[in-house]
Specification:
3 helices
């Protein structure tokens, strides 16, 4: 009988599948009370600071969107001129 390799592979597979497996949730149980060494932030922003940050970000976003709109429209105008008025 020449099926020894297939049978031994099957037996090995069954042994590997039989071993108890640790759940991912059980692995994470030990990390509940870990304190981070870097990156801890204990400061709290005041409402005035939050308002200033919000206004600054809105101004930056308006400026960025205006720059994008101007650049896209200029590219479209240049392409329109190239394809309609310039004869190749």
């Amino acid at each position: 009988m020449s099926f020894g390799g297939a049978v031994s592979a099957m037996v090995t597979s069954l042994k590997n599948n039989k071993r108890p497996r640790v759940s991912a949730f059980k692995k994470m149980e030990g990390y509940k009370d870990v304190k981070y060494k870097k990156g801890t932030i204990d400061k709290i922003a005041s409402p005035q600071q939050l308002r200033e940050i919000r206004e600054r970000l809105q101004q930056e976003n308006k400026r960025d969107s205006l720059i994008k709109i101007i650049s896209i429209t200029s590219i479209i105008i240049i392409l329109y001129i190239l394809f309609n008025f310039v004869k190749f």
